[in-house]
Amino acid sequence: MTIPVAILGATGYTGAELIRLIDGHPHFDIAHLGAHSQAGKAAGSVLPGCAGHIASMVLADADAPLPDAVELVFTALPHAAAAESVANALALGKRVVDLSADFRHQSPAVYQQAYGIEHPYPELFEQAVYGLCEHAREQVATTSLVANPGCYPTSTLLPLIPLLKAGLLDTDGIIVDSKSGASGAGRSAKTDLLYCEINESVKAYGLPRHRHAWEMEEWAEGFSATPVRIRFVPHILPMTRGMLTTLHLSGKQVESWHNLLQQAYRDEPFVRVLPAGELPSTAAVAGSNRCDIGIVVLGEQEAVIVSCIDNLLKGAAGQAIQNANLMFALDERTGLPLHATWP
Ligand SMILES: NC(=O)c1ccc[n+]([C@@H]2O[C@H](COP(=O)([O-])OP(=O)(O)OC[C@H]3O[C@@H](n4cnc5c(N)ncnc54)[C@H](OP(=O)(O)O)[C@@H]3O)[C@@H](O)[C@H]2O)c1
Predict the structure, then answer these.
(1) 151 catalytically annotated
(2) Which atom of ligand 1 is nearest to the CA of 9?
(3) pTM score, two decimals?
(4) For residues 230 and 214, what is the distance between their CA atoms, to the nearest angstrom?
(5) Average pLDDT of the chain, as a whole number
(6) What is the arithmetic mean of pLDDT over 25-45?
(7) How many whole angstroms from 296 Cα to the centroid of ligand 1?
(8) Which of 123, 131, 283, 285 is least enclosed by beta carbons within 10 angstroms?
(9) Number of C-beta neighbours around residue 189 at 10 A
(10) What number of CA atoms fall less than 13 Å from residue 42's CA on the CB side?
(11) Structural domains in the chain, sorted by start
């Protein structure tokens, strides 16, 4: 089975990762690459890591018509720009995995709160499925539109959901402290991402309320039926890729949490709960589609959980392909790296 796919936003960081993974996928075939300011150029002239026949493919304009043969579209575009491409692709009968935030929320009103803009296609919200694969397999398999989760929410929700479902967490004021590599901010030029601005430095940003806080709270409740209040502080680190999230948690039966998480994810190919007391690192997941989770009990009612993902893989392109595999009834591991590029 060969499924022709389009990647819109192919010249960005997540677009480049989609190209790398999909070109090695046994059932997906890259039929169309879309860009914006770089449209008209050969992919290889814009993406230094791109080789082979894909490098000579000419980048189409973002709103150029999609080839009829394309069945699946990945939209790796900035939020707001993505919504229109998603709507166009769906109108043509294509299936879509959207890597942007445009369809991640449960209502246009929450989207507007988080992103400060009115949503141009509120009627599409109903058909979007939030694609946190491990918790939404059945819904993903039957939808035409998957909203791929954000990177910070992925690294937060995977450890949180089983504990919330078990009713073991204090839910008022969960502290989520995250660190991301600079690729998390995308490829477009920004002064505060210049080498001299981020090298030898760590800084918090996005306060008082980063837009991913809404997504975390909405879906923590969405998957567990338990309302939560999350205090989320993201930081940017002088590294290219990787994300480490530390959850400061309190609740009951803390000694059972490690076992509970291990049971919840024991059959999951891409979630690894480390032995009790061991903590994950970004290097151990870089280039893989894995989320590694470590837990340390601090006291009778307190624990710290640390999770690590590669923001461009499990936090973006990898999870997008995992979702696409589910949409096309393929083994969800197809074309996805389990092992990191370590060291
Ligand atoms: N980076 C991450 O770790 C990460 C993780 C999870 C989710 N995401 C989300 O994934 C999406 C893509 O992120 P990214 O980091 O890959 O971004 P990026 O590196 O900035 O790339 C953006 C892409 O979109 C195109 N583009 C820019 N403005 C456009 C417009 N107005 N209309 C159509 N196309 C436009 C660019 O084309 P040109 O280069 O031709 O201008 C480029 O291909 C974003 O919504 C982001 O929030 C990113």
Answers:
(1) yes
(2) 43
(3) 0.97
(4) 9
(5) 97
(6) 98
(7) 36
(8) 123
(9) 7
(10) 12
(11) 3-148+314-327 (3.40.50.720), 152-311 (3.30.360.10)
